[in-house]
Amino acid sequence: MNATAALAATAFLVSLAFALTTLERWLARRRRHEAAWTVSLFMFSTASLAYWAGAATGWGSLSFRVFYLFGAILNVPFLALGTVYLLGGRRVGDKTAVVLALSAAFAAGVVMAAPLVDAIPVDQLPQGREVFGPAPRMMAAVGSGVGAVVVFAGAAWSAFELVTGRRPGHGAASAITPRRLASTNVLIALGTALLAAGGTLYSAEDEMTTFGIWLVLGVTILFAGFLVSSPAPGGPAHGPPAGLAPFYVELWEIATAPPQPPARSQN
Q1: Which pLDDT score, from 0 to 100, does residue 62 have?
Q2: Cβ–Cβ under 8 Å, residues 11 and 212
Q3: Domains, the chain, with CATH or none
Q4: Which residues of the chain have pLDDT under 70?
């Protein structure tokens, strides 16, 4: 296995593990922003699997179409959907999700049916403009561009709220501390920026290896942002309600403390 295929395999395995972890968190809480992030990570792992297949066995029409659809068009918009749910609330997020789902289905049909304007080189991952007509490339530009703007705007807004001391008034963010919210969105924005930067570096064989490094770094930082948004399943999501008397605070701590194993008999 060459270095490019090894990095592609690493990106796939890491993103799949992260997707399964985020799925577990969503199953435990049923929070919509975590569902959107889970979908985004599974799309990323699918694109990474196609990248692995192309790097290991040679690129073909199917592997490139799958890579382009999930890696260049759909991944970032679903990542941005998590930001919409986080900051905009359920009503705005649900409407956005419907539009995004319909757009994703349309994009999938276009990419899988679009004729190739040139042959795909077996040993090199081409740019979209080299093999696709305008429709798939416009979808990639709009999807990644608009999605990235939403992600970056969410990071900037949450950082502004942290600096000004404001508390989010709606959306899932209202249950997250401003510092944690800012860290979440900044990490997601940084991971998105790394993935976007890596996407410009895969036009040659040696650059495909660099692209694999960017993939692994980008998805790792994205996942760190997802984890920062909330504690792990099974533990309390926050401390006792503000304003409780010390007696009730102690009762709350006793009620939410993890169970202790029974003492072993000395006999």
Answers
A1: 93
A2: yes
A3: 3-256 (1.20.1070)
A4: 1, 161-182, 195-212, 229-267
Query: Alpha-carbon distance 47 to 53, whole Å?
Result: 10
Q: How many residues does the chain have?
A: 267
Phi, psi of 201 (to 5 degrees): -115, 20
Note whether 58 and 46 are within 8 A (CB): no
Instruction: Give me 8's structure tokens.
Output: 């592609």
Taking residue 178's Cβ as centre, other Cβ atoms within 10 Å add up to 19
What are the residues whose beta carbons fall under 8 Å from the beta carbon of 157, sequence distance 6 or more? 87, 185
How far, in Å, CA of 200 to CA of 208, rounded?
Answer: 10
pLDDT of residue 167: 53
Long-range contacts of 84-87 (CB under 8 A, 24+ apart): 84/36, 84/150, 85/31, 85/32, 85/33, 85/36, 85/171, 85/172, 86/33, 86/154, 86/171, 86/172, 86/173, 86/176, 86/181, 86/184, 86/185, 86/229, 87/154, 87/157, 87/158, 87/168, 87/171, 87/173
Q: State the virtual CA torsion across 214, 19, 78, 74 in degrees, nearest 10.
A: 60
CA–CA gap between residue 88 and residue 190 (Å, rounded): 21
Euclidean distance between CA atoms 215 and 4, whole angstroms: 11
pLDDT tens profile 15-67: 888 888 889 888 988 888 889 989 998 998 998 899 889 888 888 999 999 99
CA distances from 129 to 74, 89, 133, 134, 205 (A): 18, 37, 7, 8, 17
Question: Which of helix, strand or coil describes residue 216?
Answer: helix
Residue 149 structure tokens: 């703007």
